[in-house]
């Protein structure tokens, strides 16, 4: 079992706070600047330090959904993004419409 799968099992089956960094979480964390990292382990460690424990379970889902539906890989919807004012993505002006 890989690290991501193990973290998902911990999160969902056992209710243990963990951060399974998938492609969406990796992209959102780096674009926004919330938890930049060169690989998923770096991002995971930063998020685990940054996100308060009581929000870890929900934060995992929120980050995935934000990456899947708003901060999409090819054409992020920056003009409709509720955290646009906080996001440090340098190219966000190119995606405002
Ligand atoms: S402003 Fe754009 S790049 Fe930043 S989080 Fe929102 S959708 Fe993603």
Structure report:
- This protein is an all-alpha fold.
- The chain contains 4 helices and no strands.
- Helix 2 crosses helix 4.
Gist?
The protein is an all-alpha fold. The chain has a single domain, classed as Helix-hairpin-Helix base-excision DNA repair enzymes (C-terminal) (Endonuclease Iii, domain 2, Orthogonal Bundle), CATH 1.10.1670.
Describe the main β-sheet briefly. Answer: none
Distance between the termini: 41 Å
Look up the CATH topology: Endonuclease Iii, domain 2
- CATH architecture descriptor: Orthogonal Bundle
Low-confidence segments, given as residue ranges, are none
Enumerate how many helices there are, as a single number: 4
Rg, Å, rounded: 13 Å
Our count of domains comes out at 1
SS strand fraction: under 5%
Helix content: 40-55%
CATH class: Mainly Alpha
Mean pLDDT: 92
**Order of secondary-structure elements:** HHHH
Write the layout of secondary structure elements.
Elements lengths: L2 H10 L10 H10 L7 H11 L5 H14 L28
Bound molecules: iron/sulfur cluster.
The site of iron/sulfur cluster (SF4) has 14 residues, from helix 2.
Features:
97 residues, mainly alpha, Endonuclease Iii, domain 2, 4 helices, 46% helix, elongated, binds iron/sulfur cluster
